[in-house]
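User: I've been trying to design a sequence by hand for this structure and keep getting stuck. Would you show me what you'd pick, starting by listing the structure so we're on the same page?

Assistant: Good idea, let's start from the same input. This is the structure you sent:
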C-alpha cells in the first residue's frame, strides 16, 4: 500500500492517511481481513508522528473501515455491501454539491449541468 502525503494539500496529514486508506478499502485494493501496517511502522515509513497515524487509524475504526485486535494490529473490516454503498453515495452527493456550486458560479443552467453530468456518467 502506497500512501503519498503533502504538506501543501491543505488537509491535515491524518486526514490524508484516512482518505487514502479508505479509498484503498472501497476500491478493493485492501481486502477484508488484510493487516494494515502497524501504527508505529507506518509513522516511521512516512516520517511522521505516531500520534498522526494513530488518529487516522482511530477515525478509520470509528467509521467502520478497520478493526483492531490488541497485540495483533489493525485489519480491514468486513465490507458490508450496504455500508460501502452508503459511503459511496455520501461521497457522490458531496462531490455533486461541489460541482453544482461551480456550475452556478459559471452561470450554467440546470439543463446544461444535467447534460454535463450525463456526459460524465457515460465516460
Amino acid at each position: 500500500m502506497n500512501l503519498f502525503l503533502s504538506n501543501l494539500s491543505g488537509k491535515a496529514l491524518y486526514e490524508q492517511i484516512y482518505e487514502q486508506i479508505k479509498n484503498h478499502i472501497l476500491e478493493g485494493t485492501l481486502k477484508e481481513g488484510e493487516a494494515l501496517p502497524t501504527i508505529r511502522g507506518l509513522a516511521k515509513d512516512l516520517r511522521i508522528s505516531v500520534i498522526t497515524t494513530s488518529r487516522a487509524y482511530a477515525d478509520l475504526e470509528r467509521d467502520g473501515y478497520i478493526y483492531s485486535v490488541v497485540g495483533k494490529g489493525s485489519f480491514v473490516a468486513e465490507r458490508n455491501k450496504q455500508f460501502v454503498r452508503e459511503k459511496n453515495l455520501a461521497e457522490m452527493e458531496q462531490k455533486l454539491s461541489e460541482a453544482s456550486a461551480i456550475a452556478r458560479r459559471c452561470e450554467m443552467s440546470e439543463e446544461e449541468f444535467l447534460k454535463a453530468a450525463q456526459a460524465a456518467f457515460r465516460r
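That's my pick for every position. To get oriented when you compare it with your attempt: The chain has two domains: 13-76, 81-122. The beta strands are 66-69, 73-76.
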